[in-house]
Amino acid sequence: MNASKKNDSKDNHASAVDSEEARQRRRKRSWFESLHLVSNLNDQRKDYERLRRMYLLENTSKIDYDDDGDEQSPITIMRRHDFESIYRTKDIARVVSMDTRRLMLGEGSPASRGFWRRREVQSVLVRAMTVYLLKSNEEYKQGLHELIAVMFCVMRRASVGIDGEGVDDDDEEEEEEEEVDDLDVSVCEGETNDDLFDVRFIEHDCFMTFNAFVQNKHLRVLEYYRNNNSPEFIDEYCERFKRAMYFADEECFHSFDIEPRMFLPRYLKLCYVREFSYDDVLQLWDAFIVSGFNEGSVTNNKEEKTKDFFEAVAVASVLTCRTDIIDAARKNSKDANFDKFGTILKRVNKLPPGIDIKAIIDRARDIASRRSRAKHGYDDKSMIKNSNDSLLEEEEKEEGDFDESPFKGSIFAAMLEIREDYVLE
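Given the sequence above, the corresponding structure tokens read:
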């Protein structure tokens, strides 16, 4: 009897593993097709081999040899090396390694920090990110490591399933962190091919999908990183959030008096990685990559449609807290000591569990479509009734006497509960 139960348990586990691997294979294929990576897969893998050798091997090799195979003198080596490039490469590797060691993606991902501290995992993420930054000449910003980690999980599971993701309890213990600084590329050299799920090219495919995703002209994720210190840029997308929320739910909009810059930059920079479970994040990214990049729009402007949809997900996510937001506003009107500001801020920084991600996607598409139509005069006037006047009236009310009550009570406790945003230890 017990043996039968054990066999059934093993069969169920094998079925779950097979199902996860099959699901991730379908996802990887659809992403590669949407990002136009399938047709020249072999050439792009070869290109990554070339870039990796150029940036990580030639620039960081410790011993150089002349044409006869004899070791060159230290002076000759110093003259040939670009020490500025070597320093930047090592510095990028150090910072990325520090960030990836603290990775904790949502439920459904490799949930153990021990997994992300494995040297083979660290090496892949550090090499792929370093090559990307050196090739694109982008500055590393904290948060990019979380995006490439999602890509790595999808590529890995598509090739090997979830086997090997678990760790022993001993691996969870805090230990002295060892930097991944050798950037060894010889361990993953080999003949490239067109097999989409070849386990030898998980790193190559991780780099390719990450590069295509963040560089895509329709989504333009990098804008949120490049303009992170630009008040004008942040004000623009915060204003877009307010107007989209007004169109979507006017009652909730008037009850919601939290400044979007207190949560929206994290939503957009991390593509909602921290807001939902890992599986829900992948469904969102499916919509961004597969649906968003291929659908038309009422204005025949695919770039605008995808961007509107991407930002509309933030509105749809906040509206899942609609009941809490309106209740908090009502309690505040009856009780002056009630901390409305802190209550709402805490809620939007930690969305409730069990959210229907498909409903969020559908609502975000509706919001993006209505917003696009409103901007271009394709919808009826009732939808955009004096929205500018209403927003101005709200702003004029806010310009009156300064009300310091939101900064009392438990606001500081709410701020402290915001999940750790890029604080280096």
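The chain has a mean pLDDT of 75. Try to locate this feature in the token string yourself.
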